[in-house]
Design a protein that fits this description.
By secondary structure, the chain is mainly α. Among the domains are: 6-35 and 249-365, no CATH class; 43-192, no CATH class. 48% of the residues lie in helices and 6% in strands. It is built from 19 helices and seven strands. The chain has a three-stranded antiparallel beta sheet. The protein has a two-stranded antiparallel ribbon with strand order 1-2. Helix 2 (43-61) packs across helix 3 (68-86). The longest helix has 21 residues, at 248-268. The two termini are 29 Å apart.
């Protein structure tokens, strides 16, 4: 999950994502906050992805034609499964798939092919969050954003050598259909996602993070300085620029992104009270209907949500700060301050098109329609575990308070920071 992408719900094994055609704009604001970080929030998330690419490259060199994605999924799945097994199934946010992996009751290791399948592990592995970060960090060379096209660089090889030199060698026979060594404690420790990085690995990763071309490099350095200087009380005021953020435009862009995220949340999110589109969907679900006349969509219960959306959209427009390409954020917010309730709703539903659709003058249930009530049912431990099956965000515990609606990348960076902290001081200094 990233800032402004409204995908907290799931349909079957996949997320329901309401971007309202603003996915590129949301990505733009995330890039302004911490360029290139993507969904990375701890060091071994990066290491496991690199190890998968290394194995994929080795298999292709051997004429076996394995794709990076398959290899990385298998490596990550085995790392998580083996760690959960060794830790007697003690849960940790860095170990997704807790419930699903328990279904594998066999004592022997899963095969490489089985470990890489969706039947064994989660459908949204942690590898997905590394797609943007690996090229940005200079750990892979890439001609496009396709994970299968990535190839390790010297820096990527150096990071693997600093973190999992034994596993690099030991997993290759397994990937070719063989077995893992019987004596493997050191190998499993190298694969354990919950273990901190070594001093040498942290130095490599930090140098990679604060390197690169401008202005992205400066923004990453400033964002890191910001989270590293946070005390227990954090920093919650948007009106006070923190010392670590030197560039006023950087802070202004982050603030604009936060206000825009709040607009998106009011339009289609899951906040308390219900967003405009979520309330319409819940109403249709409660009534057991899959079609609602646009003229009947506006009801008394929906007015507070519409008013909240207009207020937030107006606040964004009032700032006059919209760095997004083509001022796309302002165009969306202009739609959201429309005085005619029916016209405002029609514009939102037309932008949705997947969960709710606009056909002529009617709102129809789309392919991802669920229509669940706004009040959540009581969940037992098993149900909660299912909802957490593809956990891909850092835990909030331990993160000092931050400004409202700040980019999820700042949260990610706050949890990643310990894995960027060199033991002998900064590589270049901040």
């Amino acid at each position: 999950m990233e800032w402004g992408l409204l995908g907290g719900e799931r349909l079957g094994g996949t997320r329901r994502v309401r971007t309202l055609g603003m996915g590129a704009t949301v990505r733009f604001f995330n890039e302004q906050a911490v360029p290139g970080l993507g969904g990375v929030w701890f060091g071994r998330q990066v290491v496991l992805a690199l190890l998968g690419i290394h194995i994929g490259e080795s298999l292709r060199a051997d004429g076996r034609g394995s794709a990076n994605i398959l290899a990385a999924n298998a490596v990550e799945a085995f790392a998580v499964w083996s760690t959960l097994t060794r830790n007697k199934w003690s849960r940790d946010p860095r170990l997704p798939g807790y419930l699903k992996l328990q279904l594998y009751s066999k004592r022997e290791d899963p095969t490489f092919k089985h470990a890489g399948s969706r039947a064994f592990y989660v459908s949204q592995p942690m590898r997905i969050g590394t797609r943007d970060a690996l090229p940005m960090l200079g750990l892979v060379s890439a001609t496009n954003r396709r994970f299968n096209s990535y190839a390790l660089t010297e820096r990527g090889v150096a990071l693997l050598e600093a973190t999992c030199p034994r596993a690099r060698t030991a997993l290759l026979p397994w990937a070719k259909g063989g077995s893992l060594p019987v004596r493997r404690k050191a190998i499993l420790e190298e694969l354990d996602p919950t273990r901190p990085l070594s001093d040498s690995a942290r130095e490599i990763l930090r140098e990679a993070f604060i390197s690169g071309p401008e202005p992205e490099r400066s923004r990453r350095r400033e964002a890191l300085a910001f989270v590293e200087e946070l005390g227990p009380g954090g920093h919650t005021s948007w009106d006070e620029q923190p010392a670590g953020i030197i560039d006023a435009t950087h802070w202004a862009d982050m603030r604009a992104g936060a206000v825009f995220a709040s607009v998106m949340e009011a339009a289609a999110g899951e906040e308390a009270g219900g967003s405009v589109l979520r309330r319409i969907e819940a109403r249709m679900g409660s009534a057991g209907i899959r079609k609602l006349a646009l003229s009947d969509a506006v009801e008394v219960a929906l007015i507070p949500a519409i008013d909240r959306l207009r207020e937030r959209a107006g606040a964004f427009l009032f700032t006059g700060h919209d760095p997004s390409p083509g001022r796309a954020a302002s165009q969306f917010c202009t739609d959201c301050v429309e005085a005619d309730d029916q016209l405002l709703i029609s514009r939102l539903v037309a932008r949705d098109g997947r969960i709710l659709r606009l056909i002529d003058s009617s709102i129809l249930a789309g392919s991802a329609f669920e229509g669940q009530p706004l009040s959540e049912p009581d969940l037992d431990d098993t149900a909660v575990a299912i909802l957490d099956e593809s956990l891909d965000e850092p835990p909030e515990e331990g993160i000092p308070p931050l400004p409202e609606s700040i980019s999820r990348r700042i949260h990610n960076l706050a949890t990643l920071a310990p894995d960027l902290r060199a033991a002998t001081g900064d590589v270049e200094g901040l």
